[in-house]
Write a structure and sequence with these properties.
The chain has 239 residues and is mainly α. 74% of the residues lie in helices and 0% in strands.
């Protein structure tokens, strides 16, 4: 209300060094102060609501991280990831609600090879059902996991933990940076008649889900393909 106050002061011809005592002026100042304080309160409230979204995500990540650190054997976590990953691949390349003619079995075989280093063939594709397809994939994927576990021997558990934690930490940091960037411009959604907070919650949830998928895929791909290379002995050591 600065311009309005200026007009009042000019009309009343109040000197610049005169204490403000006129009731109208003081009421106008009090009204402006209330509006500013109300605006600041709304801003703090929104910031807390934004922070609450991230706190929920942080709780989920930290609880999983603690679960990994406190467990000597994290096979259960990795097998859960395997199951979720296979389900996602099936949903992508051979959806249950799609006709068999629309299934991309070649793309599915390629994805399985890239993700798990598993070669799967689909003989008699015309006779395949969704249930048979699941069984056809599940067995070689589980066998590949057990084979990798046997190959890595005593290093397997340690490698599982290391790969899980490193991948999770990297992806979580990227997610935090992405959400900070989202928060900076989210208020512009108001110009499109959208609630910025609701839009923020939607976008933050979407990016969190994407982060989890990337973490899972990257972890499995590394774990299923990692190899232990023994350091060759030097001539002195051989002697």
């Amino acid at each position: 209300n600065g311009e309005r106050l200026q007009r009042i002061m000019n009309t009343l011809k109040v000197p610049d060094d005169e204490p403000i005592t006129a009731g109208m002026v003081t009421r106008a100042i009090e009204s402006a102060q209330r509006k500013v304080e109300g605006h600041n309160f709304d801003m703090r409230k929104h910031l807390l609501e934004y922070d609450d979204v991230m706190n929920q995500q942080r709780t989920l990540i930290y609880s999983l991280r603690r679960r990994i650190l406190e467990n000597n054997n994290v096979d259960e976590i990795v097998l859960e990831m395997l199951s979720e990953n296979v389900s996602d691949l099936l949903d992508t390349y051979a959806p249950v609600d799609a006709k068999k003619a629309q299934w991309d079995l070649g793309g599915l075989a390629m994805a399985l090879n890239q993700q798990f280093a598993v070669n799967v063939e689909f003989p008699n594709a015309n006779e395949l059902t969704s249930d048979k397809l699941v069984e056809l994939i599940k067995s070689p994927v589980r066998a590949a996991f057990e084979q990798q576990k046997e190959k890595l021997g005593p290093y397997f558990s340690q490698l599982q933990k290391m790969i899980l934690l490193q991948t999770m930490d990297t992806r979580w940091k990227e997610h935090l940076a992405q959400v900070d960037h989202l928060k900076e411009g989210i208020n512009l959604r108001a110009y499109g008649q959208k609630d910025p907070l609701i839009e923020y919650k939607k976008e933050a949830f979407r990016t969190f889900e994407q982060m989890q998928i990337l973490t899972r895929n990257e972890t499995l791909e590394k774990l299923m393909k990692v190899q232990i290379v023994e350091k060759p002995q030097s001539a002195d050591e051989l002697e």
